[in-house]
Structure formats: structure tokens, C-alpha cells
Design goal:
With about 110 residues, this protein is of the alpha+beta class. It has one domain (about 1-105). It has helices at about 30-35, 60, 70-80, 85-90; strands at about 1-10, 10-20, 25-30, 50-55, 100-105. It has a five-stranded antiparallel sheet. The longest helix is centred in the C-terminal third of the chain and has 11 residues, at about 70-80. The protein is globular and about 40 Å long. It starts with a strand and ends with a strand.
Length: about 110
Amino acid sequence: MRKAKILYKDEEAGVLTQHDDGSFTFSYKHTWMADNNKPDISLSLPKTGQEFHSKFLFPFFYNMLPEGSNKQVVCKLNNIDRTDYFGLLMTTAKYDSIGAVRVIKIE
């Protein structure tokens, strides 16, 4: 199992988990849910109070990944398998990403 903190504008909004079977769960932090001023991180992941489950990486996070030659370079330089989308996400969205969301690996 691997986990990552999901930051929205540098505040922890929730946790993304990849389970041993390859499936994923995203859940908002209770404090994020309790604050009505905090937004959904995505229209596809609304603040409903539930956990979200998927057999594959959620499209919102998948769309944060590099493509083409950029993906090849990142994978080669970081020894990441090209099909390890979660590993790639944690590597590329750690410091800089398009938008307000960043992904930080939980050790």
C-alpha cells in the first residue's frame, strides 16, 4: 500500500491511497470537510463525506501526469516503470503542478 497527501494551495485536503491490489481510494480530511469555505479539489471528487474508490487512478489525478517524451524522460531519470502512474504522480506533482493541487508521498 502506498499513500500520498493531497495538498490544495499548500493545505492538506485529503489522502490518496493505492492499495496492494492496485485499486485507489481518495478521502478528504475531516477538517477539510468541516470547513464550508474549503472547495472540492475537483468536480469529480465532491466534498460528500464519503470515500471515493476506483480500480484505476482517478481521472483527475491521471490528467496531472506528463505525457509522451516528457513522461519517458521522467520515468528514465527516476527509475519509474511507465505504467506506475501513482509513482509518476508522486514524483511529478510533488513540487509543481498545473493548478492548485500537489501530491506528497507519505513515507
